[in-house]
């Protein structure tokens, strides 16, 4: 449970968890609506909103690369830790080291992003942004396979009851 909480803390920021800016119109429209919603929720000026978007855009490529590396590391774990097949301890150790290094890099990225944001958002706005990020991370964690939410998706009450041993 602690690992899940830790991973949620390291989850991508609210604004960086979007599709790259070179995607189609629907993704761009969704991103613009989200940015407007965040701006209203935080009471951002036009200048603050522009700076927040610039920060998001500047840190997004690094965040995506770290998330891709994280996925590759956990794919490596899955490959090594298959039932009935002996894991290579040296490979697992290297994967654990890579995981720790990636976590450190992600934490540093978040510190750098927070430092930049502190230059133009008030402490109250930064705290509100953290709450919005936490809320967004919670919404994403309740999504099921393929991004579905609600009945039958992973994390839904119904699927938990079905999967729970009787």
Could you explain how this protein is built, in words?
This protein is mainly alpha-helical and 166 residues long. It has one domain (2-163). It contains 6 helices and no strands. It has helices at 2-9, 25-42, 46-80, 89-118, 123-141, 157-163. The radius of gyration is 19 Å and the shape is elongated. The chain starts with a helix and ends with a helix. The model is unreliable at 1-21 and 151-166 (pLDDT under 50).
Strand-helix topology:
Elements lengths: L1 H8 L15 H18 L3 H35 L8 H30 L4 H19 L15 H7 L3
Offer a quick outline of the entry.
This protein is an all-alpha fold. Helices cover 70% and strands 0% of the residues.
Features:
166 residues; 6 helices; disordered N terminus; disordered C terminus; mainly alpha
| Straight-line N-to-C gap | 22 Å
> How would you sum up the global shape?
elongated
Class from secondary-structure proportions: mainly alpha
Percent strand: under 5%
Q: How much helical structure, as a percent, in the residues?
A: over 70%
Major sheet, described briefly? none
Radius of gyration equals: 19 Å
Write down how many β-strands occur, each being a DSSP E stretch of 2 or more residues. Answer: 0
Task: Please give the oligomerization state of what you see.
Answer: single chain
Estimate the mean pLDDT confidence. 79
- Helical segment count: 6
Number of domains: 1
Order of helices and strands: HHHHHH
Low-confidence stretches: 1-21, 151-166
């Amino acid at each position: 449970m602690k690992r899940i909480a830790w991973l949620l803390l390291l989850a991508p920021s609210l604004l960086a968890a979007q599709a790259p800016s070179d995607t189609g119109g629907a993704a761009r429209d969704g991103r613009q609506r989200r940015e407007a919603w965040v701006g209203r929720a935080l009471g951002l000026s036009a200048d603050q909103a522009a700076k927040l978007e610039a920060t998001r855009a500047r840190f997004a490529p690094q965040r995506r690369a770290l998330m891709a590396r994280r996925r590759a590391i956990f794919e490596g774990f899955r490959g090594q830790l298959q039932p009935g097949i002996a894991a290579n301890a040296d490979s697992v150790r290297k994967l654990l080291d890579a995981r720790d290094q990636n976590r450190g890099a992600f934490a540093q990225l978040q510190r750098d992003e927070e430092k930049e944001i502190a230059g133009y958002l008030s402490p109250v706005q930064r705290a509100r942004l953290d709450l919005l990020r936490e809320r967004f991370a919670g919404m994403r964690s309740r999504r099921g396979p393929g991004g579905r939410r609600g009945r039958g998706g992973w994390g839904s009450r119904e699927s938990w009851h079905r999967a729970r041993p009787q």
